[in-house]
Amino acid sequence: MKPYLKLDPWNIVEEDFQPHLHEISESIFSIGNGYMGQRANFEESYSGPSLQGSYMAGVYYPDKTRVGWWKNGYPEYFAKVLNSTNWIGIDIAVDGQPLDLASCKVTDFTRVLNMKEGTLSRAFTAEFEGGKKIRVDAIRFVSMARQEIGAIRYAVTPLNFDGILTVTPYLDGDVQNRDANYDEKFWVEVAKEFGERDAALTVKTKKLDFHLTSVMAFEVAKNGEAVKLETEQVEKEKYVGFRAQIEAAANEQVVVYKYAANVTSRDHGLGQLIEAGRAALRSALEAGFETLYREQVQAWADKWRDSDIVIEGDVAAQQAIRFNIFQLNQTYTGEDDRLNIGPKGFTGEKYGGSTYWDTEAYCLPFYLSTADSSIARNLLIYRYKHLEKAKENARKLGFAKGALYPMVTMNGEECHNEWEITFEEIHRNGAIAYAIYNYVNYTGDIDYLGQYGLEVLAEISRFWEERVNYVAAKDQYMMLGVTGPNEYENNVNNNWYTNRIAAWTLEYTLEVLDYLRENEPSRYRELIDKLELTEAETSKWKDIIAKMYYPFDDERQIFLQQDGFLDKDLTPVKELDPVHLPLNQNWSWDRILRSAYIKQADVLQGLFFLGDRYDLETKKRNFDFYEPLTVHESSLSPCVHSIIACELGYREKAYEMYLRTSRLDLDNYNNDTEDGCHITSMAGTWMSVVYGFGGLKVQDGVLRLNPFNPGHWTSFSFKVMFRGSRLKVTVGEHDVIVANESETAAEVSVYGKKHTVHGLSHVKIEHALQG
Ligand code: BGC
Fold first, then answer.
1. Which residues form the Glycoside hydrolase family 65 N-terminal domain (predicted)?
2. Domain presence at residue 762
3. 300 and 386 share a domain?
C-alpha cells in the first residue's frame, strides 16, 4: 500500500477522505487511556465500511469455542474483548438531510491524531444532495486524568444557507463483535434512565454478567454563547439519546459538547453503577470541556516527560517511534493489576484483547524503564494472581504438579484452541519466569522474590520437571512435541529455545531459593511449607540442568532450532522469488511447516534473553545462520534481530530491522492494520532503540549503555527511569550525554566506564570511547 499519512513529528495526519482506507485509519487513529479505548469511528452515522470499536479494559466475553475437531483439553471458550456501548455517537441532520460521509461530497478533509496532547480531531466540508454545504470541526479524547470520562467538541457551520440543524447525541449498546464465533450479540439491556440533564444506559453481557453503565450529557453553544434548547428524549432497545433542533444562519457556528462516563461492574457494585456514572459525569460537566482538555494535555505531558524518544534529522523515524510510545501509553497505564496488554490493545478485535507471552517477553521492558516500578510490578502480580488457574491448566492437561500458564487468557484460564499452540507452545512459561528475573534485576526490588516471585518460579519449575523426559540410553533430558516461538514449526523435538529457557528457569529458581534461605530464613521456611517443596524435587532440578540436551551442529558451531533442522532445504529467503512472500498468504500451511523458514526469532530469542551467557562469536554464528532464513511474519520478530544486530555491529541490518518494526502499522506493511494495530510489537520497537542503538543493559545493579548512532540521524535521545532517577540519554554525532533530570544520583556505565551522574546534572562522553 502506498503510504498515505503525512509525516510530522508529533501528529499523525490524514488528508483527503479515502473510504477504502477508512478502516485502516480507524485503527491508527484510535485513542485510549488504559481503562477504555475507541477506534477512530465517526461521531455521526456512517454507512460505508467501518469496524465499530469501543472497548472497556477487562470486560470480555467467553465466546463458545468453534473448532472443526474437538480435542480433549481444549478450552470451552475464546475470550473476546467486547465491542461495547457506542458513547461517541452524535447524529447530525441539516434541514432533515442526515450527514453521512458515505453519501455526501467530502472536501478539505483532515484527520489528526495529536500524540502530544492525546486528542483525535477531524475537519471537513460536506456537501449534501441539493448543494447545501457545512463545515465540521470535531475533536475528542478519552481522559487520562479521569479514566471513566470521554469528551467531544463537535462544531457545525452552515456555509451557504440558513437552516435547521438537528443534533442527536446518543448512547447505543446494540453493538456487535465482527469476530463473534456464532454471529451473536453479546450485550442485553438492563436499564435506561433519563435525568434532567443526562441519559443513562446500562447493559450487561449475556455471560459473566459484566455490567456497563454509560451516562451522557450534552451542551450546545452558538457563536460562542451557550444556548438552552428544547430536547426530545429518544429511546430504543439498548439506546438512549436526546434530539434537539437549532436554527443556524450561514457562517454561524453551532458547537455540541458531549460528555460521557462509562463505569463497569469491575469497579462498582451493581446497585451503585448509575450513581457512580452520574457522579463522574457531573464532575466532568462542572469542569467543562476546556478544563478537561487542559488536564488531558498535562497528563500526556507527564507521560512524554518520562517516555519520549527524540530523533533529530529523520521525521519518518521520529513520527514512528512516537506513535509506538503513544499507543503503549494509552493501552496500559498500570494502576490496575487485573489488567494487561492485548496484542491489539484498544484498536481492534483480533487476538481478543487477551494476554499473551508478548507482555513478559516484549512489553515489560518498556514499562520498567518509562514508568514507576509499581507499574511493571503490577504486570507480574497479574500472573501471580493467576497461579492457581495455571496449576489447574496443568492438571487439565494431565500433569500431576506444576503450573502451565495459558498462551492466551483474560482471567488466567487458557482460551486458545489450536493444539499446536495451546498444548505445545509451552515456552510461554519460561517468559513468565524470565520476567521475574528481569524485573528484579532492573529495579533491585529483591523483596519481590519472597513476596510473590518464588511461588510462581517453583510451580513453573515443577512443570518443566514433569514435561521433560529422561532418555536413559543417552543419560540426557529431552523435551518432545513442542512448538517454539517460531510458529512455522509444530510438534518438534528439542526446540533449543524451549529446552534452554526451561533449564534456565530451574537454575534461577534454585538461585532464588538459595537467596531466600540465606537472607530471609523465616519467609523461606514458610514458602517451603506452603509449596511442600522437597529435597528430591530440587535435586531433580539440578540433574535436569546438568543433563539437558541441546541440539547443536558441530560443523557450524550453532545451536539447532530443533532436532533435524539441518535436514531441511536451507535456501535463504533472499533467494526466494518475492512473489512467495509473505509465506503465510501464499503457501499452504503444510509447505510452510516443511520449509526452513522462520516466522520469528527463536534461537535468537534465547540469545537475546540470556545474552550475558553467550559470547559475541556465538551470537554472530547463530545470527549469520538464522537471520537469512527468517521471514519476520510475526511483528514481534524484527526487533530482536535488530537488537542482536546492534550488538554484533551489523548496523545496516539493525537499521533495516528497526524500520520494519517502527512503521509497521503506519505504513501497513503486513496489510492487516484495519484489524487493529500491533501494540505489543510496539514495545519491541522501543527496545530496538533503547536496547539496540542505546545498548542498554542492567548488570550487577548498574545501568550500562553502549550507544551508537545508526548513521541516519543527527542525534537521538531516550528517557529511562532507573532506581529512583530519571535519565535522558542523548546520542549525538560525537558524544553521548547522560543527563539526570531527577534529584537522585545514578551510577551508569558508558562504553564500559562507570560514571556517577548527580541529581540535575549530566556527564558527557566522547564517541571515541565506543565499545
Ligand atoms: C506470534 C506469537 C504472539 C502472537 C500475539 C503470533 O503471530 O507468533 O508469538 O504471541 O502473535 O502477538
1. 14-266
2. no
3. no
